Amino acid sequence: MFGNQSEPVTLTRNCKAVIIPAGEEAQLNAGQLVFITQSLGGSFTVYVDGWLYRIAGADADALGKKPPEPPRLPAGAGDADVEAVVWEQMKTCYDPEIPVNIVDLGLVYLCEVQRRADGKRDVAVEMTLTAPGCGMGEILVEDVREKIAIIPTINEVAVELVFDPPWNQSMMSEAAQLEAGLL
Fold first, then answer.
1. Would residue 69 count as lying in a domain?
2. Any domain includes 71
3. 39 occurs within a structural domain
4. Domain count, the chain
5. In the chain, which end has fewer C-beta atoms inside a 10 angstrom radius, N or C?
């Protein structure tokens, strides 16, 4: 089904997963054969018995993989440096069915980084989905929140899912359109 793009792996331990596209939690068991069909941004999409599942980077070891490295800030990082790292972290968030990050897909409508009096920063993000009824919406929102929250100096992250304006393919970057075969 997936040709040379999948990698067979036997799970080394039980791990949590999310059923794609329903967004429901599931458990995959140690010793189970899975096929990694996508490993982007630190999370993994696996194929098991006719179903697709998303395994978070925190459970990479169950697949025999290394978890993603936390982001680092350059010494003496200013506001612009922190904002750049926030955007880079969002580029590590992928729709588990589409091999294009959410920034290049055009799903991030707003990202504001505010410095607080104590030197820490709060981040507000407005994002959308390629389809309003997608069951993976809350999973993607939490992925964005978690990946921004681990950046040094970040205090609070608020991610809001919005549907106005409705997303369409013209919002994708040219590179994303090429990757998706639309150009």
1. no
2. no
3. yes
4. 2
5. N
Give the Cα separation of 12 and 9 in Å (integer): 9
pLDDT in tens, 113-160: 999 999 999 999 999 999 888 888 888 999 999 999 999 999 999 999
171 and 127 within one domain = yes
Provide the residue range defining the domain that includes 10: 3-63
| Residue at token pair 């100096």 | 153
- Half-sphere exposure of 110 toward its Cβ, with a 13 Å CA cutoff? 15
Helix (H) or strand (E) holding 86: helix 79-90
165 in a structural domain: yes
Q: Where are any strands of DSSP class E within the chain?
A: 7-10, 15-20, 25-28, 33-40, 43-48, 51-55, 108-115, 121-127, 154-161
Q: State how far the Cα of 183 lies from the Cα of 178, in Å rounded to an integer.
A: 5
pTM of this structure: 0.82
Residue 119 and residue 166: Cα distance in Å, rounded?
Answer: 36
Same domain (yes/no): 127, 172: yes
